[in-house]
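Entry for fe (ii) ion complex. Fields follow.
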Amino acid sequence: MEYVENIQLTTKVLAEETLISPGFYTTSIRKFSNIDTSSFQEAFNTAIANLKSDYTKNDYIRDERFFNQSWDHIKGEARELIVKLLEMYCAAEYSGFILYKELSHQLKEENSILSGGFSLMSRDEARHASSLNKALLDFHIKPGLGFLKKEDRKYIFLPFSWFLYSTYLSERISSCYYITIFEHLESHPEYSIYPLFSFYKSWSEDENRHGDFFGAIIKSQSQFSSGLRARLVCKFFLLLIFSMTYLKYQSNDKLLALLGLDARKYYISTIKKVNNSIRKDLPLVLDVEESRFFEKLDICLLHISENERINISNQHILLKSIRKIPHYLSILLVMLRLFMLKSISTREKR
Ligand SMILES: [Fe+2]
Ligand SMILES: [Fe+2]
């Protein structure tokens, strides 16, 4: 025990502080307050009962796989990639924690059901953030938590529909990210270079329960669940967020290769899983099995690379901007074509 304390003390002494920069978001509290949960009471009751059960409460315990261990044998690029991953997720989890904590507080008087749900979700995000915080200390990095002081935060206001769709989908996407990595490492343990990944199954389940809570909110709102406008809005957000997710795959290819994953295949598989998991909540889903879907996104990637190439050239800024216009137009055209592809209605199954 004394040895463990010594190690922890040494880690603390050697840790260098790094800045963690979570995003801070807010939206219309009035629109949240006006949500009538009674029309979908059963969906809310189930989602909140599942959150209250706190099934994964004891799943994030750092046992002997962490104690008396040093991760100093992970060096060079591999170490940089792991630290980058931990910092990125640490920021995202703190962002979720603060967002849900504040929503819970702001809705306390006006909508106690939503307030309760957000409070339970902030508990989970705090637990996730704490696991990542400790993981960073394993790599001698102490996350700077200056953002916990409210006066230092800069908030981004998102219109209600943007907020709802982006938060809902980020929960579903995270859930699928985590379970895909967990299942891959279970069948290829030789790539499991750090024990935090063993938490990913519970982590995925937590994020999935968060997605269920947001799913109940979306279903309770007729402007998001039925009618032509709802379908167009849904298709727009799915296309936008899936595209943004997919277009990131090249920037994470080295990290995923470290875990034995092919980045493009991993992103395609994750997006397909997400598309399947959202059928129960949304009026439609995209036809991501259609081979042209990812092929068209690959065309966008080529245009993005071209623009990056132009950006680093020595040309005048005005000339660079002019040269980039045709690529932006091509991306826009591809996105319009993707929007025109048929989607799959989920209405009959709901
Ligand atoms: Fe989380
Ligand atoms: Fe979450």
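NOTE: Residues 2-225 form one domain.
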